[in-house]
Every structure is written in C-alpha cells, then in structure tokens.
Amino acid sequence: MNFIPYISVHFLETKVEEWIIFQNDHWATLHKLDLYFSEYGINPEIFYSLGENKLFFSKLQDLSFYLGPISELNTENAIALLKILAKNATELSALKLDGFYSGYEPQLLHALICIIKSQEQLRQFSLVGGGIPKEFYGIISALENQKILRIKDCNNVNILETSLNTLEITNHMLYSSTIVKILEKSGTLLQRLKLVSTYNKLQEEPLLLETLKSFCPNITYLCISDVDFSHDT
Q: Could you tell me which Gene3D superfamilies the record lists for this protein (predicted)?
C-alpha cells in the first residue's frame, strides 16, 4: 500500500489521468486534502472515480476547504464531493472551512452539515468567513460533541448550546449575557476559560462572575481581560 501525505487540487487537475491510474493500481490512501472551490472548476467524475476505492479517503485526517463565492456549476460539484467525503472520510481530526460566504445554496450548507455529523474523531474545527446565514446554526449544532472551542470575532456566540471543557472567546466587544448559557450548560465540565475583549472591557461583569461561581466550580485556568476582582465579588 502506498501513502500520499499531501495533495492539492491544482496538481490533481493537471495530472488527473495518470494520478487516478496510479491510485487505482497501487491502492493509495490520502491523509491531507486542500480544496479551493472558488478558483478551480472541479469535475465530480474525478472524485467519483476516487470514491469507488473506499480505502482512498478512509484515512483522511486533515481537510481544508476554501469556499468563497461559488458558481452554480461549481456548487453542484462541491456538493457531490462533500457527499463522497461524508460517506468515505469519517475519521477527520481537523476540518477547516475558509472563505465562508453568505450566499450559499441550502443544499451546500446541508452537505457541509452532513460531513461534520459524519465525523467520529473530529478534534479541531475552524470556520472563517462573514455574513453567516441562519442555516449556519445547523453546522454549530453538528459540533455538539466538541469539548474544546475557540472563537474569534464571531457575534453568534449565544446560539451555542454545548458542554465544553475549554472555552476561549476573542472579540472586539464581549457581553456576559451572550456567554452565560454556555457556562451554565458546561457546568462542572468546564476547566479552562479565556475571554478577551480587544476594544472595550467585558460588559456585565457581575453576571459572568456570579455564573462562574454558581455553575463552574472546577475551573483551573481563568483569563478575563480587564476585569477587576473586588473583595465583594
């Protein structure tokens, strides 16, 4: 069995025929895959051919998508590939979605949710983009088994309903009222908490501190920017 540590779509497109023959003849497996849907037109037949060899994607551990605005044709191709990956690549440890765009078709969002839900060992998930639509909440709910969560510059923190061991949030402004539900849900499981407000100090401090006191007694690491801990707190 041959092992291919890394491959890019650009290489795949320029060497399609030889590469497919190689992997079919040698039962290759893939551990890392980067895809740039907004830049390249991907022929789904390429991936259907690869998907016929279930072993090929079965060891995939690191998957990165750069999405951006996607044409209608490329959206269909992206959905086709995501379905193949959701079926055959269920042991990802890291999944990154970059260039997330607000105008995606519901079918594409559903395909993204499916690949997340299909994962059995996902340890790291990254979503970078803007203009997140309400369908994005389904992606968040698909991550309910994650115990470590790091969020940067996201204003949708209050939609999270999950129990965490580690929570780190960085934003230009933080409101305790958007965080306390996560703290209450995590309860005694939460051990590490880091809150960084880069523009203004954390708002509604007493609410946060009282929630921590009541629900999170097992915290061993606590970092909150610009908070004054008085003797009465």
A: Ribonuclease Inhibitor (3.80.10.10)
Range of the domain at 163: 147-233
Number of domains present in the structure of the chain = 2
Answer yes or no: do 112 and 160 share one domain: no
Which class for 170: exposed (0-12), middle (13-18), buried (19 or more C-beta within 10 A)?
Answer: middle
Of residues 212 and 109, more confidence is placed in: 212
Question: Token pair of 105, please?
Answer: 């078709």
- Measured CA to CA, the distance from residue 207 to residue 217 in angstroms comes to 15
Q: What percent of the chain is helix, strand and coil (3-state, nearest 5)?
A: 40, 20, 40
The answer to whether residues 109 and 179 belong to one domain is no
Neighbours of 178 (CB within 10 A): 18
Asked whether residue 161 falls in the same domain as residue 49, the answer is no
Q: Two tokens at 158?
A: 């209050």
